[in-house]
Every structure is written in structure tokens, then in C-alpha cells.
Amino acid sequence: MKKITWKLMKMLPYRRPLVRCLGKTIVPGLAALFILALALPGGPSDPVDPAKLPPPADQKGLTYEKDIRPIFEQSCLKCHGPEKQKGKLRLDSLAAALKGGDVGKVIEKGNSAKSVLVHFVARLNEDDAMPPKNGGKPLTKDQVGLIRAWIDQGAK
Ligand code: HEC
Is residue 36 scored above 70 in pLDDT? Predict the structure, then answer.
């Protein structure tokens, strides 16, 4: 089979330019696919099924100072506070929390289902779970629900 193809190739008048031309499209094409394959899976921007997140709490009038900071203080600030800023993220003030970290914004005001911080504390994926394994007690479903409701209400 190989020999036959080779013979056919030899018969083509512009064999070499043809091969070169194929090389020019196939090689960069494969390279692009390879880069895509590397870039697409993994990473915190992975699609998350919002149906798997704990539901937002019913509580109204939630604020960072009154309702959310205490949760962060208990579970997050030792790594995201004045001493350490893992992932360049601080959660010890509302402004810092809204600013985000290495991956950019982690809170999408008004949309908790799309907020990376919510995905992480809901632990849908143990590799992107906060606090990390052995880094403290996971948040309860009620705490995640409270954070969700706070973000849905505009993260004030
Ligand atoms: C024991 C340390 C530790 C604790 C406690 C902790 N984190 Fe983290 N956090 C990390 C580390 C380390 C990273 C960086 C991970 C990486 O870059 O791969 C990170 C990254 C993050 C990020 C992504 C930031 C970015 O832009 O890259 C978010 C969001 C986050 N943490 C939220 C939280 C929340 C919310 C809590 C508390 C419920 C928490 N973390 C508790 C260690 C911690």
C-alpha cells in the first residue's frame, strides 16, 4: 500500500511543492489543536453545574461586615489575610474580596452560580476546594448558601 502511494506521488508533477504546502497547513493546524487541548481542560474556569451547588439562603439584607466576614475570618483569613495572600487573594475587606486574585475576579456581583469563590467553597471538585484539603474544616452547606445569597444580593 505504501509503495503504491509513493509511486502515485512520484507521478504527480508538482510533488514537492504539494508536500510542502500540506506541511504548511497540517503542522500549524496540529500545533493549534495541541495548544487548545492543553488550554481547555482544567483550571478554575471549568464549567460548573450550578444545580450541584447548595441553594442560596433565604435571608435578606446580608452584608460583608455583618454576615460574611465572620465566615471568612473563621475559615479563610489565615491564608487570605494580612499575613498570607495565597493566590494573591485577600478576603479581609470587602474591596479586596471584590478585587479578586491571580485568576481575576472570584465574585461576580449578582451571580453566585458563576462566582469562582462559590465553586471553590462548595467543593464540587476536590482540586479546587477551599479551604484546601488539610487546610481547615470545609464550610457547611448553610454557610455556602449564605455566601451565595450575599453575592446574589449584590455583594454589599
Ligand atoms: C490553608 C490555606 C488556605 C485556606 C485556609 C484557604 N485558602 Fe484559598 N487558597 C489557598 C491557596 C494555596 C490558593 C492558591 C491555589 C493555587 O494558586 O493553585 C488559594 C486560592 C484561592 C482562590 C483563588 C484565588 C486566585 O485568584 O487564584 C479562592 C477564590 C480562594 N482561595 C478562596 C478561599 C476561601 C473562600 C477560603 C475560606 C473558605 C479559603 N480560600 C481558605 C490556600 C488557602
Answer: no
Residue with CA at minimum distance from ligand 1 atom 7: 131
Predicted local confidence at residue 2, as pLDDT: 61
Residue nearest to atom 4 of ligand 1 (CA): 131
- Domains in the chain: how many in total? 2
Does residue 58 fall inside a structural domain?
yes
Residues near 83 by beta carbon (within 8 Å), at least 6 away in sequence = none
Percent of the chain with pLDDT over 90: 66
Output the CA 130–ligand 1 centroid distance in Å: 6
Answer yes or no: is 44 within a domain: no
Pocket of ligand 1 (CB under 6 A): 75-76, 78-80, 86-87, 89, 100-103, 106, 116-117, 120-121, 130-132, 135-136, 139
For residues 93 and 130, state if they share a domain. Answer: yes
| Residues 3-21, mean pLDDT to the nearest whole number | 62
